[in-house]
Every structure is written in structure tokens, then in C-alpha cells.
Amino acid sequence: MILVAEGKRKWVVTSAWPYVNATPHLGTMIGSVLSADVFARYVRLKGDEVVFVSGSDVHGTPVAVEAKKQGIPPEELAMKNHEKTSQLFRQWKISFDNYTQTHNPTHIKFCQDFYLDVQRNGYVSEKEIESLYCEKDAMYLPDRFVEGQCPFCGAENARGDQCDKCQKLLTPLELIQPTCAICGSSPYIKKTKHWYLLFPKLQDRLKTFIEQNEIIPKNAKEMCLNSIAEGLPERAITRDLEWGIPAKFKGAEGKTIYVWFEAVLGYISAVKEWAEKIIKKPEKFEYFWKDSTTRTVYFIGKDNIIFHLIVFPGLIMAYNENKKGNEKLVLPYNVSSTEFLMYENDKFSKSRGVGIWIDEALELAPLDYWRFNLIYNRPEKSDTSFLWSEFENNIKLLNDVIGNFIHRTLTFINKQFKGKVPDIIELDDKDKQFLEQINSIGKTVGDLLERFELRSALREIVSFARIGNVYLNEKAPWHLIKEKKALAGQVFNICVQAVHALAILLSPFIPDTSQKILEFLNLETSLKNITWESISDKALKSGHPIKKAKPLFEKLDIEEMKKKLEIIRKGKKEMKEKPDLISYEKFKRLDIRVAKILEIEPVPKTKNLLKLTIDIGTEKRTLVAGLAQHYTPKELKNKQIVVLANLEPKKLRGIESQGMLLAAVDGEKVSILTPDKEIKVGARIE
Ligand SMILES: [Zn+2]
Ligand SMILES: [Zn+2]
Hints:
- This protein is α+β, with helices and mostly antiparallel strands.
- It folds into 4 domains: 10-112 and 260-343, Rossmann fold (3-Layer(aba) Sandwich); 122-201 and 224-246, Beta Complex (Methionyl-trna Synthetase, domain 2), CATH 2.170.220.10; 387-581, Isoleucyl-tRNA Synthetase, Domain 1; 585-672, CATH 2.40.50.140.
- Helices cover 42% and strands 18% of the residues.
- A 5-stranded parallel sheet has the order 3-2-1-14-15, with helices on both faces. A 5-stranded antiparallel sheet has the order 20-19-18-21-24, with no helix packed on it.
- The longest helix has 29 residues, at 388-416.
- It is flat and about 110 Å long.
- Bound molecules: zinc ion (2 copies).
């Protein structure tokens, strides 16, 4: 189905919230964030009103477990990782209006209030259940905090949520001989109270919602209807974990709200936070979220479909009940889900080193090569693989098809027509045909994008550039130029309109390249001022001056890139394994030498400090050392010692100590280092 734009539309564009505990890899990128960015950029160019949000999901148990292990507060770990991910998304030019995280005050308050409304509307029930409790840590253990033997395959170190060996999903109570993952002691079963969301009460309405929505893809629809037919279970909203959003209602003290409940609400609260804190127009929150005509779109991986089409709308329905029309939150308009991206036909795996992570990618090639490649092979209908061979082909496409057409056109106008767009004289059928294609390409690509077929849209643009090359070759203006210069000029008038079209068409996909083309064309480059509708066969008037063009792309050596990736990996591994190694170069900067003690004086009002005057070969120095309880002045007099001579001077009890004497220390025992043989004072230690 084709959605025709009638006036401005309102969009809330979102991408799935990445867990904060890992750097995203290329699969995560195309599965959600990058796809959403292309769409958001497109609808902005269409002139629609758009807010594009997402954020880091920070309340997951892996964060809590990892923080306990590192002995730091989970918030500290989460914020550190969140910062890193945000930075990487900025480098990938993801045009978020707000990329936030789930531990921000707006979100916390929003979720707590949201819960109360859902409870007031009668969608929550209270239950007593059995859970594992660790006496030593004084806490109930959430699934990932429990380890034990797998009841299915007998593996020794299965986790409370899943066995890594046989992949079966588990609950902590199923584990044989469970132990606490933090302290290793045996937890016991203890009763605890939890609050559950009554999904069965929402089942019929969710079924109608799915059936009546004509936009969501067929496969997603089927998946949801099957899941509803099996019966939707009640789901626990609260859990006994300190890290998370406090459950602020009677009886739930000390409990937090489960991540499944709050993370999806981030789509709503992120817009609220944007309206209140970023653009400082709080009314824009209702303007987007509480208008039934707003289209909310979710870019997600296929494993997230149920979550976004059943769980999330279910929450919204439970919240909306008893509310007036303009107080209701809008239900999802569509999800755009992708199949999985593999890496050379294997699953991405950090531990096995299979895949490419988004920080590494940017060290290997310029951003647009990655953006282009990922969307060109977006796994829309089936799982696809990142293949180096395909990457190499796609780099060729950029160079030989798109780059070549644009470069030939602009260079020719610069050389032969003094950089001014030539005139149209008289058009033949070939010209007319290409002009028509320039006029219709915006709609063709736009329609594909509105159907969320990003991959086909990009391929259509490449075909268009290919048509441009064919047209140029058939017209052969380099021959025309000798006798019919004006006709040659006409060819380039037409081609430069196509170059302009390419700049706009490519903008959602490879924004850096698009920016460069617009600069060459001497046009406004600010995203705010370029529009999709400006694509036309008369976009540039004859006489319009253009600038000198440089090649847009370069050929990259795939083998070199692979080698570089290995080097990056090795560097990271070494840093991890030997964090405190210093190079010989650094060691050489330490000025350690043999010195001789000349005078010894006690430092007044201290028991252990001595003021030593020493000869370091080049000069005399004063040292303060804690030796009085270990050596007598007589033992020290004229002794050869070893000192670090280029240590920053430091005042101790009013005396400046100009270096440090080296000694071996074992608790109370102190032994001064001294050369094995008599040696010249000032000799270097190396
Ligand atoms: Zn198992
Ligand atoms: Zn414990």
C-alpha cells in the first residue's frame, strides 16, 4: 500500500533501546538505529514534523551483576557505557532528537505515574510467589544472580535465566544446587510478593488492534495473532532488585519495576524529556504523543516484534482506559522489523571475535561506506550476511556508478562551460526520457521508503545513477563538444539536474556524501532547507555557478582493511591482558642512579623521618626518608644508595625532599637497596 502525503504528517520515529552493557555491532546498527535514522531523515526532508528518539536500556540485570563484580555502583557503570554508545551514534551521524537512557528523572517519574494509572484502571494483581533469597547478601536473587546445574543437560554453570550449553530457558528455582552468583553461598526459598499485569484482560482488544492495522507487515501480524491465540500470560511488573526504577506504591517498598515494563515506556518519556528539557516546549509532548493522527514507528529486530505489538500496546491500552480522547496515548502505527545480520555466514560473537563492532568499523573506512553497505544489504526479508566480498563490490558501486557519474558531469561543466550550468536548446526523445526519470525518481524512492523498503529504495537510487551513466555514454558529449558545443552543454544541463537529484536522494542514506555534492553544486547544505520535493528536472537554472568538484569516493583495499582489523583487535586484547605494562621508552625516562649519603639529621617531632644530604654525582640533594626506626645514623653514613633523581620534589614537614631513596619493604621490614660492588657515585641504573 502507498501512503500519499497530504500536508504535514506527524511522526515519532524510534529505534529499539540497546542494552548498555555492550558496544553495538553492525547487526544492531542495521537492525534498529541506522534504519530508523534513514527513515527519520527522509520524513524530515518531506517536510513532515518528526521527533526521533531512543536511548540506552540501563536497568538490565547484566549491568547490576557486572557492577557488583567491579565493586562500583551500577549507575556509574551504566552512565559510562551510555556515554560511550551515545558518542558512537553521533559519529555514525544518527540524527536523534533525543538519545537518552532509562535512569533519567523524567523517565523514572513517568513510569511511576504510568504504573499508578494502570493499577487504578484495574489491570494489576498482587501475588505471593517463591523466590531464592541469599542470607549473606541480604537480597532476593533475580535470575541472572543465580547459578547452578542445568536440569536438562546437566551443565555445571547454567544461569538462572538460561543454560548456555543447551540454550534452554530456565527459572532460578529449576536449577539443581543453586548458588548465589555474587557470594557463592546457597540461597534458600523464601516467599515474596509481586505485582502482575493482567494481559488476559487485554487479549481481545489487542487481537482487534492487530487485525485492524493494515500497515504492519504480514509476517509480524501472523506472529502476533499466534501468540494471542496461545493465550497471553500475566507478567510480573515488580522484582526484588535494587537497581532499577523504584516501585513507589504501598507494599512494594524496596522493589523495582521490571525492565520489560519500563524500557518500552522510554519511547514516550524520551519525547517528554525532549519537549521539556531540550527544546523547552513542554506542550510538544502532548502534541506528538496524545494526537491520534501521529504515526509512531518502531525500528526493531524480529525478536522484538511481540514486545512492540502486544506488550507495549497492551500497556498503552491499560493506561488509556477512562481517559478522554486528547489524553490518550497513540497506539503503534507500524513496526519495521529486520531479520538478522550474520557475519560471513556466522553469528556475531564478541568472545569468538566474529563480527565487526561499530567503533572498529569507523577505524577501517569512512562512515558512508558502512552506511551504504549496511542498507544496501539490509536483511529485510531474510537473514543476510555481512560479506567482505560484497563490501568490496559495494565500494565499487559507489566509485564506478555514483561517484563516476557525478564527477564526470561536474568536471566537464567546470572545464568546458566555465563552471556555469549550460542551457537547454532542443530536446530529443532520449533527453526527454531521462528528464522524465529525473522527475519521477523522487516519488519512486519515496514510495519505497514509505513502505519501509529501505534496501530497495537505495538500490533504486543506484539504478538511477546507472541510467545517468548510460545516457552520458550514449550522448557522448565529449565528441559533440567539437562541433555542437551547445548540444554538449544541454547534455550536462540534464546531467547536473540528475546530480542534484542524487544529492537529495542519497541524503537519508549517506548524509556526508550528500553534503559534499550540495557543496559542489554551490547550494544550501543545511538539512533544514533542503527538501525532497526539490528533486526536479529544473532544479538548477542555466547560468547557475557550480564549484570545483573533487572525487567523492576512493577505492579501498579490502585485504588491508582486514589486516587493520586484526591489528586493532590485537591492540585491544593486549591492553586488556596487560593493563599495567610500560614501554622501555617510558622506563628509560626514570633517572635512577647511585648516590652517597653524606649527612643524617632527625626531622624534629617525628619518630621515623630522617633528613639526608646526599651526593648524586652532579650535585648535592636533600632527601626525607622514613628510616629512623630501621637504621642508625652510623649505619647510614657514607652508604651508597639508589635514588630516583627525577621525581617531583615534595615537601615533608617543611623540608623539600628532592628525590626518593629506593628500598625493599615487607611490612615492618625495610632494606635499603645498595650496589653490590663499590661504584662511581652518579652511575645510572638501567
Ligand atoms: Zn543445559
Ligand atoms: Zn550471596
